[in-house]
Amino acid sequence: MVKVSIIVPVYNVEKFLPRCLDSLVNQTLEDIEIICVNDGSSDNSLNILNEYAQKDSRIKVITQENKKKGAARNNGLKIARGEYIGFVDSHDYVDLDFFEKLYNTSKKNNCDIACATIVRKREKSSKYRVYYNSEKIYTKLDEKIKICDVPNCCYVWNKLYKKDLISNKFFPSNTFFEDVLWLPNIIKEAKEIITVADTQYYYVVRDISIVKKLGDKQKQNDAYNSKKYILEYFKDNNLQLQPKYEHISKRTYFFYQIPILKIKEYRNIETFLLFGTIPIFQKKIVNNAFLIFNTAAFGDVLLCNVLVQNIKLLYPTSKIIFIVDKQWQDVAKYQKDVDEVVIYDKYGKHRGFLGFLKFINSFPYKNAVASFITYKNERNYILSKLLGCRKISYRTKKWDLNTSIQYQHASLLQKIGNFDIQNIPMKYELPMNIANTLHENVLKKNKLNIVICPISKVITKNMPLEYVFNIINKLNTQDYNIILTGIGAKAEKYAKELIKSKCCFTNLVGKTSILELAYLLKNCDCLVSVDTGTMHLGYSIGTKTICIFFETNTKKLWGPDEQIYSNVRVLQNPREVDVLNIVREVCNVE
Fold first, then answer.
1. Residue 301: how many other CB atoms lie within 10 Å
2. Is the pLDDT of residue 77 over 60?
3. Which sequence spans correspond to the domains of the chain?
4. Taking Cα atoms as reference points, which of 564, 298, 562, 553 lies closest to residue 400?
5. 474, exposed or middle or buried, with CB in 10 Å at 0-12, 13-18, 19+?
6. Cα–Cα distance for residue pair 283/276, rounded to 1 Å
């Protein structure tokens, strides 16, 4: 593993690129890789990259169609091998000791992010944009936001990040101001941020800078979305925002460079200003919600999270509303990026035609941007129509047996626009207040805690009884703490048969809620599961998970991708000894 990966998006910068690359190849920290992503340049930039790559093996050149910096950085992230990752824009440059100082300071103090001074360079002048004169660590969110000068300076490139912090945190694609949509949450997740003195990043202001030309509709929309996101971020995290940032310029209409009409937004009200200054009239803002309908089972509700995260990447200021069956509300509620859960109680108060009408009348998010129906369901389609969804995306054919359900759910986005789908790991964010005495008594501090879920809804997928008996007995010889989980009458009968066979384990079959199961999985050392819902919960919460499949098709459809989830091992028809060896391996036991 190299010490630092430096990712450089490149687009039509032939005039500035040599200075940028010279500042990188001559870094005093030599153990680096320089990943240059050519974003469809039409000038001589690619030839310059190739010339430098021939002279220095640390330079890697990737070429992509023009999809803007976010997509370019994502492609760099996917192949980055560094212990730490930094970003440099191709028209900028850095001091020759820049990455050595940031790396050594961050490494010495075990910090997630190191920040350096920014110097804004114009053709005839220079000015400090951000200045740090000392080495200091910050841990509180308000302090971290302030020292990074967000939202005034939402820049990703004067910083060095631990790879573990950002390796799966992709930038929004095909958008401007991607820094603003990416950085605040990274700052929030970082445990410690340190400032570094006496080294500088030089931000070169060009007359033709992409983000300075805001005449077209997309750039104005992207500017609006980024500012809207900052407003929501500060509000959600109880942070103080300067008054000048509370008003958002949504769009300006020009006539020969004269601003004829400007639309400004403040607290969900749009104000129309003639010549940018004279108020004409006001109106309330249209709903910015996306609806996801999935009233199926436990595991499948969780598999929607890849879709949820992709929507948030594309529409960072949106509100994602998950409509779910009552018994699975906690599965939806704690998924990453889900803003609100609405229960469709199909067996209770929303049962039948009158219940259907009751749901429509009480639903608070009418006229949503789009509705995603993960299974073709006439009721949910009619609901989407009657709720006034502007676009409806639903499955029109059977499953593709060679593509995972996670990705197939996410691909519903492509029915409403030509979007790139990111294969993002699912993430279930467990609340902190659900620990109970049941699990405190079950989990053993001085033993390896192994949770086994041998029962699935489909009987042909269950682990054979003798098979589980042998696994548990052999694990017991290692003095592991074995815990059995599962739900339903079949699972309870299965557990009783194991108990009759004098198999030694703690029986939690039918005794846990979704949140209690999540807490158990979060705090165990390893999960072995044949049930897809349980395994999805396990690896999405960060648990080392061994996923067992006895049918090829179910593995392809419902199994996780081991390239995306580093904490997962997927086994097809394994022998008992294979399971035992892999338990030892993932738990780092001899």
1. 25
2. yes
3. 2-202, 215-282, 287-413, 446-585
4. 553
5. middle
6. 17
Residue 251 forms beta bridges with which residues? Answer: 263
Write the Ramachandran bin of 380: left for phi over 0, alpha for psi from -120 to 50, otherwise beta: alpha
> 226-282 pLDDT, tens per residue?
777 877 788 778 887 766 555 555 555 554 455 555 555 555 555 555 555 566 555
Alpha-carbon span 510 to 514, nearest angstrom: 11
Cβ–Cβ under 8 Å, residues 460 and 554: no
Beta bridge partners of residue 115, listed in sequence order: 159, 195
Dump pLDDT digits (tens) for 346-378. 888 988 888 888 888 888 888 888 899 987 778
Residue (of 313, 304, 570, 561) closest to 427 by Cα position: 304
394-428 pLDDT, tens per residue?
876 676 777 788 888 888 888 887 778 888 899 99
CATH class of 287-413: alpha beta
- Protein fold of 2-202: Spore Coat Polysaccharide Biosynthesis Protein SpsA; Chain A (3.90.550)
CA 104 – CA 110 distance, rounded (Å): 10
Structure tokens at 135: 């080495």
CATH of domain 446-585: 3.40.50.2000
pLDDT of the residue at 559 = 85
Distance of CA 121 to the CA centre of its chain: 34
CA 90/CA 49 separation, integer angstroms: 11
Overall average pLDDT of the 495-506 stretch: 86
